[in-house]
Amino acid sequence: MADLKWGIMGCGGIAGEMAEALEKHGKKAYAVCGRTKSKAETFAMKHKIRKIYETYQEMLEDQEVDIIYIATPHGVHYENIKEALNAGKHVLCEKAITVNDHQLEEVVELAKSKDLILREAMTISHMPLFKKLKERIKEGAIGEVKMVQVNFGSNKGKDYTNRFYAMEAAGGALLDIGGYATTFARTFLDETPNTILTTMKYAPTGVDEQCGIIMKNSLEQMVVMSLTIQAKQPKRGVVTGDEGYIEVYEYPRAMKGTITNTATGEVETIEAGKTEDALLYEVEAMEGTIEGTYEDNAMEISRDVMHILSSVRNQWGMKYPFE
Ligand SMILES: NC(=O)c1ccc[n+]([C@@H]2O[C@H](COP(=O)([O-])OP(=O)(O)OC[C@H]3O[C@@H](n4cnc5c(N)ncnc54)[C@H](OP(=O)(O)O)[C@@H]3O)[C@@H](O)[C@H]2O)c1
Fold first, then answer.
1. Is the pLDDT reported for residue 66 higher than 90?
2. Which contiguous run of DSSP H or E holds residue 121?
3. Fewest C-beta in 10 Å: which of 22, 47, 82, 109?
């Protein structure tokens, strides 16, 4: 297949990182579309992108574009994904891929019906480290997986006007950072949880500021998770088995983890991939899936995760204004 051409939607922080990743690895960042013309022009010039579109529709009408990378705030992902799929484009969408599981199931069906690939740009699902750690678990490195403990704390400050606290932008800790922690946990469970307990604290704007989540699946594997956007916490994930445990720091883009054997105290260090190539792994997986040379269960994980996040929010009774 000829080189696949990417159209980037949004010109913010993560869009810039993706454009750099595409550029660095000789991929084709072909078009960009931003709602602020001057920003799109600056972005295109910086990343040597040929086509600049002022409206999303115009970029979708460009027959040259194969894949749309959506890097807008998650409150608008659902609409953006639907429009792109309906225009016949494959879609890689930033996390959180949608705001709830109903939206996600609808776009998954739409992609299937159009024979198009839809994926979430979730770094954890593509970092080589996690594949290696799972292999070591299969080989018996920690015995049977019993529990996962995972946290994520990011201090977004007290400026309640930013997107992290905005109800209309689907803000809050759960959708902004909870997807990472939940993906980490789900990656190491043999089944998705069917029992979910939670408690939380609201920010003054009505979004969730912090929460605790406890989960269990039918195999009685358990997860304990804590999230906050008002305090730093180490991004630490621990997978505990009956013979040892895995520890991973900075897990969203981790390239190193340790396995401790609890009987001997021996510590094995596992290294794979590179933090700075996190977005490249997403791009390679996306292009490989489209070309039929790569297969994974990333979308099943995204669906399970979105189902968990929705179930947590349903328990809180927290709805976004557009839901
Ligand atoms: N994978 C990762 O590591 C990672 C890291 C950070 C963020 N993310 C995810 O990526 C998404 C974007 O985050 P970001 O930090 O890049 O945000 P950002 O810097 O605020 O950029 C958002 C971009 O979307 C545009 N935009 C804002 N509201 C829009 C709307 N209603 N319709 C269309 N375009 C709109 C903005 O345009 P203007 O510039 O004109 O406002 C801007 O170009 C979020 O969903 C976030 O969760 C992922």
1. yes
2. strand 118-121
3. 109
Position in ligand 1 atom list of the atom nearest CA 34: 43
148, 188 in Cβ contact below 8 A? yes
What pLDDT is stored for residue 1 in this prediction? 58
For the chain, list the domains and their CATH numbers.
5-123 (3.40.50.720), 125-316 (3.30.360.10)
How far is 313 from 90, CA to CA, in rounded Å? Answer: 29
pTM for the full predicted model: 0.97
C-beta of 11 in contact with ligand 1 (< 6 A): yes
Residues 103 and 105: their CA atoms lie apart, in Å, by: 6
The protein residue with its alpha carbon nearest to ligand 1, atom 44, reads 73
Return the SS3 of 234. Answer: coil
Q: Is the CB of 28 under 6 A from ligand 1?
A: no
Pocket lining: 71 vs ligand 1, CB cutoff 6 Å:
yes
In Å, how far from its chain's centre is CA 211?
19
Q: Is 13 in the pocket of ligand 1 (CB under 6 A)?
A: yes
Question: Closest Cα partner for 153 from 210, 249, 232?
Answer: 232
